[in-house]
């Protein structure tokens, strides 16, 4: 059975996915809203993230997200965050980068330059690879439809700037909703899609 590539993104209503977790996460472009997700505590999002961890057997990350994870999670394997920290520490981590990342975090390796070939290899080796954050990498995966599930947790906030999931110039693509939307206590909405080829057009009349 071929493994699954799952993309997990926290976004705003206007599609911004940059730096939801904290001010220093990704300040590029003089982004002033780092940590925008923190005040919006939604029980549904927490439950859904926990459920995704049950089947996750590998992480695929862009360079910036990998560096953030590598600096944080190995030191948080006990306490309330322990289950996440231990999982991330245990499973293989794959880094998509044109540079030379520090791969000292156990189980880490760098992907080769042929993204499509590397994704095919990961599908053969794992059952459920999750891409978390990593907006630049996600845009490449979306453009080439190298994913199976795109989960968006859309939060009730508009920022007006920042890196978007689908920026201007994104490759046209059709998506198929694979389960009903779910809303949470703080107004976040979960949308889960699969790729569906290219868009088509018609006449509403």
From TrEMBL:
Superkingdom of source: Bacteria
MF (Gene Ontology): 5-amino-6-(5-phosphoribosylamino)uracil reductase activity
Any Gene Ontology biological process: riboflavin biosynthetic process
Pfam families registered for this protein in UniProt: RibD_C (PF01872)
Segments forming domain Bacterial bifunctional deaminase-reductase C-terminal: 7-178
Name by which UniProt lists this protein: Deaminase
UniProt organism field: Microbacterium mangrovi
């Amino acid at each position: 059975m071929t493994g699954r590539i799952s993309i997990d993104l926290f976004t705003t209503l206007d599609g911004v996915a940059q730096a939801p977790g904290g001010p220093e996460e990704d300040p590029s472009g003089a982004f002033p809203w780092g940590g925008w997700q923190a005040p919006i505590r939604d029980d549904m999002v927490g439950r859904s993230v926990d459920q995704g961890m049950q089947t996750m057997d590998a992480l695929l990350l862009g360079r910036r997200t990998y560096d953030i994870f590598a600096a944080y999670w190995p030191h948080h394997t006990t306490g309330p965050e322990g289950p996440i920290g231990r999982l991330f520490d245990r499973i293989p981590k794959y880094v998509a980068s044109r540079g030379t990342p520090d791969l000292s975090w156990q189980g880490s390796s760098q992907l080769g330059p042929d993204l499509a070939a590397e994704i095919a290899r990961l599908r053969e080796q794992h059952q459920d690879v999750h891409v978390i954050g990593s907006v630049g990498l996600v845009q490449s995966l979306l453009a080439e439809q190298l994913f199976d599930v795109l989960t968006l947790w859309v939060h009730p906030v508009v920022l007006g700037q920042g890196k978007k999931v689908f920026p201007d110039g994104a490759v046209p693509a059709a998506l198929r909703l694979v389960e009903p939307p779910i809303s949470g206590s703080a107004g976040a909405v979960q949308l889960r899609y699969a790729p569906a080829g290219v868009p088509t057009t018609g006449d509403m009349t």
